[in-house]
Amino acid sequence: MRSLTVAVESFPIAGTFRISRGAKSEAVVVVATLDEAGCRGRGECVPYARYGETVESEVRRIESVRPALEQGADRFALQDLLPAGAARNALDCALFDLAAKLSGLRAFEIAGVPVPAPVTTAFTLSVGSPAEMATAAAAAGARPLLKVKLAGEGDPARIAAVRAAAPDATLIVDANEAWDRSTLERNLAACAAAGVRLVEQPLPAGADSALDEIDRIVPVCADESLHERSNLGDLRGRYDAINVKLDKAGGLTEALALVAEAQAQGFQIMVGCMVATSLAMAPALLLASHARFVDLDGPLLLARDRPDGLVYERSLVHPASPSLWG
User: Fold this and answer.
1) Are 98 and 129 members of one domain?
2) What is the pLDDT along the chain (326 residues), one digit of tens a residue?
3) pTM higher than 0.85
4) Which of 23, 35, 57, 159 could form a disulfide with 18 if both were Cys (CB 3.0 to 4.6 A apart)?
5) Does 325 map to a domain?
6) Do 174 and 206 fall into the same domain?
7) In angstroms, what CA-CA distances link 251 with 46, 81, 87, 136, 246?
8) How far apart are CA 100 and CA 319, in angstroms?
9) Spatial distance between the Cα atoms of 91 and 6, rounded to a whole number of angstroms
């Protein structure tokens, strides 16, 4: 007999995490736990207001499929029970973890991906004034890959300040939809001048057709404009890469299929995350072998992680132990 438990947990962020849409000082996550035959599977999600999600809405979604799950529904049946989003992600990852525990296999074997290896993750710099961001960049300058959050007005100065403070780091930037058509080419030029390797979601989702009209002198990556495989056709000719996040895709099952389809269509892959604990990062690490850039630094931004968390050696993140997930 299988049982489902749902819990809401809060983890303080080290300082404040700021993007163009606002700031937060804690990561509130929803954890789904499935117990069966003495084995336990767990999955974690981050409800995201940008996509109309709240903690309460995602708990309700999880509870809405309790009967099916407790009667044995697997992760493939789950795809038809819930839409893509945070709730399905928590359950999909819990089902992956439970299947691994019940079978004695590792999750990567079930997923059919290579044995996970340590990978370099980006380290995120919150948006601030150019001086504030330069200070943060200097403190993190020994890290090989920095992800720079931007906010729109004044972004060329932010980009230049970070590059001056961290001259040896590879830079990617994330505008979180904060640019518009009038600033797009000027900001891309500033990125090119600073040697930025990737620009994530410069324009608002649904208002990004201008990317069809310009010379993308720096590769551009879709984040908010992409959720599932069904979105890929809208992005061709507009984006060079996609950011795959389990909370958007609705779990590892869909994310694996999304990566395969995106690569077949010529997109580069970035694997990203919300600010969350190691339990949310662990399944996403199974996508890392396909990714040009990995951005799984959520636990590095927290004041504390959960027990048995991932091991980070500066920016090198190691695969999860079975005691955490998978």
Assistant:
1) no
2) 899 999 999 999 987 787 767 767 899 999 999 999 999 999 999 999 999 999 999 999 999 999 999 999 999 999 999 999 999 999 999 999 999 999 999 999 999 999 999 999 999 999 999 999 999 999 998 999 999 999 999 999 999 999 999 999 999 999 999 999 999 999 999 999 999 999 999 999 989 898 988 899 999 999 999 988 988 998 999 999 999 999 999 999 999 999 999 999 999 999 999 999 999 999 999 999 999 999 999 999 999 999 999 999 999 999 999 999 99
3) yes
4) 23
5) no
6) yes
7) 12, 13, 9, 32, 5
8) 15
9) 10
Cβ-based neighbours of 15, under 8 Å, separated by 6 or more? 25, 126
Residue 90 pairs with which residues in a beta bridge? none
Among the listed residues 180, 190, 236, 238, the one whose alpha carbon sits nearest the alpha carbon of residue 214: 238
Q: Is 101 a catalytic residue?
A: no
What span, in angstroms and rounded, lies between the C-alpha atoms of 276 and 1? 30
**For the stretch 218-230, what's the b/e string if a residue is b when 16 or more beta carbons lie within 10 angstroms of its beta carbon?**
bbbbbbbbbbbbe
Position 169: which residue type?
A
Domain total for the chain? 2
Which residue reads 């945070």 in tokens?
86
Please give the Cα distance from 279 to 171 (Å, whole number).
Answer: 26
- Tokens in use for 119? 């990978």
**CB atoms closer than 10 angstroms to residue 264:** 9
Residue-range definition of the domain harbouring residue 151: 119-317
CATH code of residue 95: 3.30.390.10
Provide the residue count of the chain.
326
Q: Is 245 a catalytic residue?
A: yes
Please state at what angle helix 55-64 crosses helix 86-103, rounded to 10 degrees.
Answer: 50
